Amino acid sequence: MDNGRNGAGANGLTASSCNVAPVPQSEIAAICERFGNDKHRMLDILHDVQDRYRCIAPSTMDAIASHTDLTRIEVEGVASFYSFLSLTPKGRVTIRLCDDIVDRFCGLDDVVAVFEDVLGIKLGETSADGAFSLETTPCIGMCDQAPAAMVNNVMLTSLTPETARTAAEALMAGQAPESLVSDRFNELSAHERAVRMVENNIRHAGAVLLGPVPEDAGLNNAVGMRPSQIINAVEESGLRGCGGAGFTTGRKWRFAASEKLDRHFVICNADEGEPGTFKDRVLLTERPHLLVEGMTIAARAVGAREGILYLRGEYVYLRELLEGVLEERRRRGLLGKDILGVKGFEFDIRLQLGAGAYICGEEGALISSCEGLPGEPKTRPPFPVSRGYLGYPTVVNNVETFCHAARILDQGAKWFHAMGTEGSHGTKLFSVCGDCLNPGIYELPYGHSVWELLEMVGGTDAAAVQVGGPSGTMIGRDSFHRKLTFDDLATGGAIIIFNGQRNILEIVEYYMSFFVHESCGYCTPCRVGNVFLQKAIQKFQKGLANPEDIDYLKDLSGTIIETSRCGLGMTSPNPILSTLKNFPLVYSAVSKPSKDGIRDTFDIQSAIDGARKIAKRRSYIFDKDFTQ
């Protein structure tokens, strides 16, 4: 049986379909060796190959497998899972236009048309000379400055047909993507490059994260405390996870610390892939030291010596900035051995770049990705705090949570606990986008109503607000009095505003298409059920739905929620369920009883279309214009 490890030819070259010339096996060997031939660094290896050769060819996978002691199929399983990796050649310049619903409403179609016109290719195509690929991608965390695009590792934001044409023509003329940012790009610091590409749009700085922050004050306090004291302080503050689930942070740390294994890990989840969320992007840009400080405090609390910062692939433009911060902190004795001169206090962090997979925001899938596997959720129990990365106790928190923890160790638990409301303590970063005058980041204490936030952002003509992104809740004007707290309207941060001109069903259908695209495919209810939900919504859009179809939506949604393996399937029906509840007239207005009591649920032409393609012939029974 071929184990996929014999791809090298006798001449020492791997035959690559990505380039005219084959890729020398020595180059693949060097890439693998750079990462210690470690199968757990598979995503890093594949990133490197993709960046150099524009795709991951079959024979290249054979070579990688031989150096990492894996089978070819294991390597291909990873390479084929992530959307930013490709088994077929990509252009030397790959342009990924964000097609989130906010981008669509901001003029994406016109921007796409310009790129297609100038580049001479359509969406999904690569130019014949291999110079350009043009494609769309889900939300890239730039909803406050849409339409946006990734051009290789360069971000373009607030695109118009005019600026898109200027950019496309410059690329066609042979200019590097970096020149679209500045003709002095190489002279700029990593931070200057980041803020030239992407606006921070900090609209309201609060008392915890975006106001004045003293340097490493929390860490200086933590080194003089016992691990149990650090955990007590975090627990007494009332800090809860800021990614949406809201689990008590101190308890999570306590569970991990109680495990008596010889290795513990701290992982930062910087994979904020929820459409409409971009708060962590701002913290990564403006508070990277605070983030690393919080991770280091967590490491001291749970006894971890190793950490991973998992950065979503869409934020690759921040990689240089973050790697520079880590290196600076090593030089200053804030990472590595004997941190701040404390004997035995050892902790370091490696940066793991994702590759375009929404599911990796789920902590089990994220851990799988860090292990060099496809980003599929893990079965629970065991939970990560007891058996996480490589089977060891692992704390996973997001960027905002670690930053809060550092501030709590600086100012004290009582200070943090006094802000917000009962059960929702401290401040929250809200990512606001959509139909409002001032999209951006607002740091506010928990407890504000939706209406109060709308007044701040200039969105008082809102007809609907999506709280928590697609996996959250869409509410109408009759619910704008509700509070932004864990006990009322919980959110990881996303607030998307829609005015009365927007079509609710169009929004719902887009969100369902997003979940269909981003499902890892592991379990049938999520993989298949969401497709059925999307098709059902399309029936409503076309005016073909019956009142009974509303019950169908509810029943199928319930089945998906109850039987799915991870959080994606458990929340994917929310766009439908929340709009059925809060916008019932939208559905009833476009559904009508069937004639003769027969439900119009089966379209014979659509059903046999696949058969036509397979058989390469038409049906003389069902095709009315068919003649033999």
Provide a descriptive summary of the structure in words.
By secondary structure, this protein is of the alpha/beta class. It has 5 domains: 13-79, no CATH class; 93-178, Glutaredoxin (3-Layer(aba) Sandwich); 204-417, NADH-ubiquinone oxidoreductase 51kDa subunit (Rossmann fold, 3-Layer(aba) Sandwich), CATH 3.40.50.11540; 421-501, Ubiquitin-like (UB roll), CATH 3.10.20.600; 505-597, NADH-ubiquinone oxidoreductase 51kDa subunit, iron-sulphur binding domain (de novo design (two linked rop proteins), Up-down Bundle), CATH 1.20.1440.230. The chain is 41% helix and 13% strand. The protein is built from 25 helices and 19 strands. It has a 6-stranded mixed sheet. It is globular, with a radius of gyration of 25 Å. The model is unreliable at 1-16 and 619-624 (pLDDT under 50). Belongs to the complex I 51 kDa subunit family. It comes from Roseibium porphyridii.
Shape: globular
- Radius of gyration (CA) equals 25 Å
At CATH level 3, the topology of the largest domain is Rossmann fold
| Count of separate DSSP helical elements | 25
Mean pLDDT: 91
CATH C-level of the largest domain: Alpha Beta
Q: CA-to-CA gap between the ends?
A: 49 Å
Q: Could you give the count of β-strands?
A: 19
CATH homologous superfamily designation of the largest domain: NADH-ubiquinone oxidoreductase 51kDa subunit
In which range does the helix fraction lie?
40-55%
CATH architecture of the largest domain: 3-Layer(aba) Sandwich
Low-pLDDT residue spans: 1-16, 619-624
Proportion of beta-strand residues:
5-15%
Count of discrete structural domains: 5
Largest β-sheet summary: 6 strands, mixed
SS content category: alpha/beta
Going across the major beta sheet, what is the strand order? Answer: 8-16-15-19-17-18
